Amino acid sequence: MSIQIEKYDVVIVGAGHAGCEAALASARLGLNTIMFTVSIDSIALMPCNPNIGGTSKGHLVREIDALGGEMGKNIDRTFIQSKMLNVSKGPAVHSLRAQADKSEYSKSMRRVLENTENLTIKQAEVTEIIVKNESIGGVRTYTGTEYHAKAVVLCTGTYLKARCLCGNAITHTGPNGLQAANFLTESLKNNRVEMFRFKTGTPARMDKRSIDFSKMEEQKGDERVIPFSFSTDSDDIQKEQISCWLTYTNENTHEIIRKNLDRSPIYAGIIEGTGPRYCPSIEDKVVKFSDKNRHQVFIEPEGLYTNEMYIGGMSSSLPEDVQIKMYRTVPGLEKCKIVRNAYAIEYDCINARQLNPTLEFKEIKGLFSAGQFNGSSGYEEAAAQGLIAGINAALKVKNREMIVIDRSEAYIGVLIDDLVTKDNKEPYRMMTSRSEYRLLLRQDNADLRLMKIGFKIGLVGKEQYEKLIEKQSQIGQEIRRLENTRVGASPVIQQFLADHNSTLLKNGTSLAELLRRPELTYELLKEIDKERMKLKWDVIEQVEINIKYSGYISRQLRQVEQFKKIEKKKIPDTLIYDEISGLRIEAKQKLAKFRPVSIGQASRISGVSPADISVLLVYLEQYRRYKNESK
Amino acid sequence: MKNDTIAAIATGLVNAGISIVRVSGENAIIIVNKIFQSKREGKNLLAVKSHTIHYGYIIDENQIIDEVLVMIMKGPNSYTAEDTVEINCHGGILITRKILDLVIGNGARIAEPGEFTKRAFLNGRIDLTKAEAVIDLINAKNNFALKSSIRQLQGSVYKRIKELREKILYHIAFIESALDDPEHISLDNYGSKLLPDIKNMVMDINKLIASYENGKLIKEGIRTVIVGKPNVGKSSFLNLLIGEEKAIVTEVAGTTRDVIEETIQLKGLALTLIDTAGIRETDDIVEKIGVEKARKFAEDADLIIYIADASVKLDEDDKTIMRLIEDKNTIVLLNKTDLPGLTVESDIKMFLNKKVIEISVKDKKGIKEFEEELVNMFSLNEKMINDQIYITNIRHKNGLLKAITSLQFVEKSIEEGLPEDFYSIDLMDSYRFLGSILGEEMEDDLVNEIFEKFCMGK
């Protein structure tokens, strides 16, 4: 019997949000790419919440877009409601979130993939990775065909040895009843990949016609929709939006849950996986926050052409009969009919500390991974990693230097650094508090931060990049103009200030200084700013933020400078930590195990002290000089 | 490579004629220039040549602190290969510390153990063969620093800083969970709720700083025992010390043993007086100067102050005491020299070869001589005076000051009506600064607190 062998540059395993970005990036960079999925119909599937973005996740989408990814464009094409969250807070935490038409989102992404040159989509289950001499050689599918490639990106999501639980009804399937991938784990383990088992869950979907919306509060979208993608013209996407609805659980709901806790697979100990604390099931909420007498429930449409509604806030793994009883205690859901039951899902994923920040496995050259497989959760987190893994797989095949986005450049950098450095015990979700330089990493300036990188890689077109350069220079010029335009304590100015409850001037000052006053805005200053030229709103936004918060921004810039210094100090991977006599034993063991790529990364490993870092610095310098001498 | 600016006393904390404060890093000259005034006014250190020496004063708010020589060495031609300033001070160890304090207050930070040498090596100034030695130096000093840093905190101070941190963390977690989940948690009016809390915290930390100033943070002062027969004037001597310095700083009743410690500050030295309550409460010789108890004291103490009565003759009890303390660090005080004397220095010297100082508590005579002897004894004895105590404390104080600055930023942000996400940036800083005192980092504290205290969720 002969084995069929196919040859590609890059293999992508999985067609979820990570897989799609990885495949597109690789193919768009000109590499012959094949993407595997267990079901062509589940491309870019949204098996849980029907939205893209949200706090800090919206940042990720913008960053993906600036680097040349697809997610932002795809949601701009398929959203049915859009909202900027936290608008009353500072610009750093403004976050865009859009409700998606799930089915359209998936179709639209499929259309893009199918029309991308160099990209082949293949329905097949990958069961083995082929590894030779610590390098990846390709993959083997269930039918025995081998696909040889120079790089492989694993984006298997929640499919590895997946098991869904609804009470004691257990099915060995992936999300939405899709076929699980039951073989790849063994192959990975055989190649000494360390696996974890994580758990997550999703609430029920209900028939819209069985819900009484008159008992709920309507949640509308923003009047003016702001697009995710920097290349989408906002005028093109204004449309009628669909509402979401808000209702609450009550003591009756909680009572039912408490009475039936013993039938929950988690509380009964059937579930082994570690679940995320940030998205607890309703039973977790009731147990852990027993002082709260109600919890919010968001009813969100799953699409324009479906009656299914997503019951946000009430994910559960209780048995079906309990689910029905508990949902029916909620105002508006008294007569609800459940289309799909809530369930918990368990799956295999890896300890991501086996990865370099490029998302390449440290021990298997050419093997990359992204998404829930790496222990994250969320569509956006997956897409962000998929993009970076896809880019690096392609760059590796092309013999170009791979990219690492660091913590000071993007949420993507924070996400990946946290995943590959920290000890993650639960599915990892992005949060704004995880970013130490968040005043610099705003969703409004993702293009200014990252598009240059996207352009260099080759995923951002020249035209778009030139627009960015123009924008950048306009921002700079306008800031300088405001800093340099003096205003005196003239009657006109004083009157203006008095009109806006602002302290009168004693001496002359600059327009920029006035703009720093909380009560004044760029728009208001127009009255006393005669030389002002007409600028686009996104230029004005940057000017205003940079001037208004300049104190904070420059403080964070100084911190970034310090951060960059140790981040730049690379650690050669030939280093033998055992030979460094000055290191404490704990530090030696941890460093040897994780093999950080830089002093900066080493300093973030828990159990490595500042003194260890000092010792390491001295040792590296010694090492460097020895090498120089022997040359 | 540019580096932040570090400072330390380079000569060790001994009372030599000259001691040197060394400052190194990109702002070294700028910082020293701020506190330096040349003999003839107006010399600007920023404008002088490298490798030059300048005569003048160190100034603090227009007050002359010391007459100094300042040596300017610009990088790369210095020990660390960075801009380096050495301040040669003449005013003794306390003045030197004050100068270091000023340098720190103006933007430098206390050097980590072995840091000058580390920088010298990293910047190529030290030969490769010395690398191991550099690593050893970093290690040896760090081990010591680690051990002493937290131990030095008074239990009560430790607890208060911990409590402050918990409070701050709660606020950060609240704000952050609301930012992450705005539809579940509202921040309406949070600023006005937060403001009084911040003000109280600033007050609390200021109190801690004030207590630092008079040494309350120092746990391991010189463990001192006052011994002597009843009625020789132990209590009045103690009261005199305390009264004069107005510096009773703490009164921590041990929970397991019935021991009371008081720490007082004398000429920059911290004396932890052990069991003084006992001494003050009762003059019952049998009970207080029992052989067993005295032996125990003697084992514990770094310093024994033995008070004898000059107006009576030495007796067997005195001799017993003297035998017990003959190989300890002891200062003998011959009190009541205002009365006709029956015991003189030479009588004591027959039994005990220690420094004897004649005093009169009643007339407040001899106290100065006692203090001088104390400074002599401990400042010259490196084994006894613990450099690290001082260094750690300046670090602690610095951490507290930085925490206050951050909290004041929060105050300002609230008052100026900035959005809430700005509050938590500065709150996080203050949390970290307080953590640096306890040797604790941020790590996953915040994420844990958010999930612990607030119900997030989709």
What secondary-structure arrangement, pairings included, does this model have?
The complex is a heterodimer of chains A (631) and B (458).
Chain A (H helix, E strand, L loop, with lengths): L4 E3 L2 E4 L3 H12 L4 E5 L13 E3 L3 H10 L4 H8 E7 L9 E6 L1 H13 L4 E5 L2 E7 L2 E7 L4 E3 L2 E4 L8 E4 L2 E3 L12 H7 L4 E13 L9 E3 L24 E5 L2 H9 L22 H7 L7 E6 L6 E8 L4 H8 L10 E3 L2 E8 L16 E3 L9 H19 L13 H11 L24 H12 L4 H23 L1 E2 L3 H9 L9 E2 H5 L6 H4 L11 H12 L1 H18 L17 H10 L4 H5 L6 H21 L1
Parallel strand pairs in A: 1-10, 2-3, 2-11, 3-7, 11-21
Antiparallel strand pairs in A: 4-6, 5-6, 8-9, 9-10, 12-13, 12-20, 14-18, 14-19, 14-20, 15-16, 16-17, 17-18, 22-23
Helix pairs in contact in A: 1-9, 2-9, 2-11, 3-4, 6-8, 11-12, 12-16
Chain B lengths: L5 E4 L9 E6 L3 H8 E3 L13 E9 L2 E11 L10 E6 L2 H14 L3 E2 L4 H8 L8 H21 L3 H26 L9 H24 L8 E6 L6 H12 L6 E2 L6 E7 L2 E6 L1 H6 L3 H4 L2 H10 L2 E7 L6 H9 L5 E6 L9 H5 L5 E4 L8 H13 L7 H29 L4 H19 L6 H9 L5
Parallel strand pairs in B: 1-7, 8-11, 8-12, 12-13, 13-14
Antiparallel strand pairs in B: 1-2, 2-6, 3-4, 4-5, 5-6, 9-10, 10-11
Helix pairs in contact in B: 3-4, 4-14, 5-6, 5-15, 5-16, 6-14, 14-15
What would you say this structure looks like, in words?
Chain A is 35% helix and 18% strand. Chain A has 631 residues and is α+β, with helices and mostly antiparallel strands. In chain A, the strands form five sheets. In chain A, strands 12, 13, 14, 15, 16, 17, 18, 19 and 20 form a nine-stranded antiparallel sheet that branches. Chain A has a five-stranded parallel sheet with strand order 7-3-2-11-21, with helices on one face. In chain A, helix 2 (57-66) crosses helix 11 and helix 3 (71-78) crosses helix 4 (102-114). With 458 residues, chain B is α/β, with parallel strands linked by helices. A seven-stranded mixed sheet of chain B has the order 3-4-5-6-2-1-7. A seven-stranded mixed sheet of chain B has the order 9-10-11-8-12-13-14, with helices on both faces. The longest helix of chain B is centred in the C-terminal third of the chain and has 29 residues, at 387-415. Residues 215-220, 244-260, 276-290 and 380-386 of chain B have low confidence and may be disordered. The chains are: A alpha+beta (631), B alpha/beta (458). Chains A and B meet through strand 18, helix 17 and helix 20 of A and helix 3, helix 4, helix 5, helix 15 and helix 16 of B.
